[in-house]
Amino acid sequence: MFQLDPVDRPGVLPMPRIDVDSIDWRAEHGVHSWSLDHVIRKGTPTVARMAADLINVRDRFRDLHPGLFDVCDVRVQRLMPGMFPSIPGWHCDDVPRNGYHSQPDLGAARNGVGHVVGTLSSSGEGVSRTEFVAEEMASFRPITDEPVWRQLHRHVEEGEPATWRAPDGWWVPITWRTPHRATPAVRRGFRIFFRMSMRPRPAHDEPQDRTVEQVYLLTEENGW
């Protein structure tokens, strides 16, 4: 059985105040598997500023769980109403897989692994908010050969737990057992999604950044 963790709403932290109207959104780029320090040194201005705000959070993680490494993933996307910034459907982040095309291994141990996620967008009212399960619910166990997240999606939908859509400008702590999903954009605009993960393996700090990002229009998958 896979115990599901609700979002830690009491642990939510405000980001530094950033004037979104002053951001050159087209100049902002995402990153893949960079350390926090590397994002601060090499990231685009707003992404680097967001990263700098997480130094103390990273250090507390390290004190509680020695041996874990900070790994950052950032997406910068321009969305139109109805577009999803990631594949729709309830899922959890950073559950181990035996290979790129393998299904998540829910039985793998991930002691101490956690994430902090946050968004900024070009609209003060938000472009696309991330939705989190916000209350305890029954444990989950895959029972068919269907994709694991598709089964989790049905499990959450049938359980009808309370959920919470995080506003822009807040850091949200979650575990690798916290179900969440993207929601469709409600207005046209740019969106930065920033995730810092604490993992057993270090970041790659690859020299390239993300200049092209996918968006999604279809919802049939609901768990890939």
Written overview of the protein:
The protein is of the alpha+beta class and 224 residues long. It has a single domain (9-199), classed as Sandwich (Jelly Rolls). The protein has helices at residues 36-42, 45-52, 55-64, 148-159; strands spanning 13-14, 31-34, 69-79, 114-121, 130-133, 163-165, 170-175, 180-182, 189-199. A six-stranded antiparallel sheet has the order 1-7-4-9-3-2, with helices on one face. α1 (36-42) packs antiparallel against α2 (45-52). The longest helix has 12 residues, at 148-159. The protein is globular. The model has no long low-confidence stretch (mean pLDDT 91).
CATH architecture: Sandwich
Major β-sheet annotation: 6 strands, antiparallel
Strand content: 15-25%
What name does the CATH topology carry? Jelly Rolls
Query: Would you identify the regions where 5 or more consecutive residues have pLDDT less than 50?
Result: none
Order of helices and strands: EEHHHEEEHEEEE
Structural class: alpha+beta
CATH class: Mainly Beta
Q: What is the end-to-end distance?
A: 20 Å
Helix content: 10-25%
Global Rg: 17 Å
Q: What is the total domain count?
A: 1
Helix count, DSSP H or I runs of 4 or more residues: 4
**Mean pLDDT figure:** 91
Q: Give me the side-by-side strand order of the main sheet.
A: 1-7-4-9-3-2
How many individual β-strands? 9
The dominant shape is globular
Summary keywords:
globular, 6-stranded antiparallel β-sheet, Jelly Rolls, 4 helices, 3-stranded antiparallel β-sheet, 9 strands, single chain, alpha+beta, 224 residues
